[in-house]
Amino acid sequence: MAKILVTGGAGYIGSHTCVELLEAGHDVVVLDNLSNSSEESLKRVQALTGKSLKFIQGDIRQQQDLDQAFASHQIDAVIHFAGLKAVGESQQIPLTYFDNNIAGSIQLVQAMERANVFNLVFSSSATVYGEKNPSPYQEDMTLGMPNNNYGYTKLVIEQMLEKTSIADDRWSIALLRYFNPVGAHKSGCIGEDPLGIPNNLMPYLTQVAVGQREKLSIFGNDYPTQDGTCERDFIHVVDLAEAHVLAVENRLTNTGCRAWNIGTGQPISVLQIKNTFEKVNDIVVRAEFSDRRAGDLPSFYANNARAVAELGWTPKHNLEDMLADSWNWQKQNPTGYKA
Ligand code: NAD
Ligand code: UDP
């Protein structure tokens, strides 16, 4: 059993990871500034698991928030989710993204050094493979330049962490490269609750299904894919959360910096998502084809063999589970965590 500091733990992936950490017997301290989440998610995590966690409302860019967190708790490892993640917004306000994600990560790593904590799991993204690598993506491919500022922050942080671990062998760092997280906890008590108009496919689709938005725009149907719409590797958020538990446990007994792809390895098209969602949930989703969205790649998916072999991780949820669980959360919480 270890004590884990979870930055950004009140958010979508963070809250699901807190559930899995608590259920695996670990102690959890969450540090989150609630800029894109609400404390309600953490109340529900505790109600669901019957276990308590510590919450600190703080910012990773504030040295004293971090130092205080490490001084008040005997932390063994950090899982670092905190950051901004909206691709479009990152093109409009790049400096805000560089400050939150890159400068925030530097502050965190420095605070860890001061506190003698050297085990870290970082939320990276498949975007670090850039635009030219063919799928399935493999961890040892040469990384490419992401085509947006959000993705650029992930690449910079990965490289910064790798160089830090090369310079000082006390570090043990996991870079988890997520593909497309969807779904929610089976209970429907926690899930994805984006502020404003969702950018991502799944929350947009469920908001159409629940009657909050008029129709789904499917961005492009002339891509060189099986049905003309983009293909992605959708991964159930609970499988993703389990990968964090395995990665943090792995880091407690290893050193160096290691990247793992966390995806199912199956390319699924946007149209397939919409059609399967309708079938699984017995509901019609109004949709129309519209222009391509700038910057979208036609298709990408993971080779997940390294995570399977080295972490002992396997995704347990299929596409139907992902779509049923996303809908269950949205149906039970039509306005998310807001009353
Ligand atoms: P989220 O926005 O739900 O969670 C991020 C959390 O970090 C929020 O609770 C937010 O309040 C907090 N936060 C932001 N800036 C902070 C700061 N400066 N100090 C303290 N807390 C701060 O997002 P998510 O979908 O759960 O994503 C978690 C991580 O995974 C992010 O780093 C994201 O970039 C990465 N990621 C997400 C996806 C995805 O599709 N959801 C894909 C790949 C990578
Ligand atoms: N997409 C869509 N309509 C939407 C949102 C997304 O057709 O309202 C498509 C998008 O073009 C991409 C896929 O769904 O092909 C996944 O997009 P998302 O933003 O969820 O994740 P990304 O893969 O871009 O990180």
Automatic annotation (TrEMBL):
<dbReference type="InterPro" id="IPR036291">
    <property type="entry name" value="NAD(P)-bd_dom_sf"/>
</dbReference>
<keyword id="KW-0299">Galactose metabolism</keyword>
<keyword id="KW-0413">Isomerase</keyword>
<dbReference type="GO" id="GO:0003978">
    <property type="term" value="F:UDP-glucose 4-epimerase activity"/>
</dbReference>
<comment type="subunit">
    <text>Homodimer.</text>
</comment>
<comment type="pathway">
    <text>Carbohydrate metabolism; galactose metabolism.</text>
</comment>
<protein>
    <recommendedName>
        <fullName>UDP-glucose 4-epimerase</fullName>
        <ecNumber>5.1.3.2</ecNumber>
    </recommendedName>
</protein>
<dbReference type="Pfam" id="PF01370">
    <property type="entry name" value="Epimerase"/>
</dbReference>
<comment type="similarity">
    <text>Belongs to the NAD(P)-dependent epimerase/dehydratase family.</text>
</comment>
<dbReference type="InterPro" id="IPR005886">
    <property type="entry name" value="UDP_G4E"/>
</dbReference>
<keyword id="KW-0119">Carbohydrate metabolism</keyword>
<feature type="domain" description="NAD-dependent epimerase/dehydratase">
    <location>
        <begin position="4"/>
        <end position="263"/>
    </location>
</feature>
<dbReference type="GO" id="GO:0005829">
    <property type="term" value="C:cytosol"/>
</dbReference>
<dbReference type="InterPro" id="IPR001509">
    <property type="entry name" value="Epimerase_deHydtase"/>
</dbReference>
<keyword id="KW-0520">NAD</keyword>
<dbReference type="GO" id="GO:0006012">
    <property type="term" value="P:galactose metabolic process"/>
</dbReference>
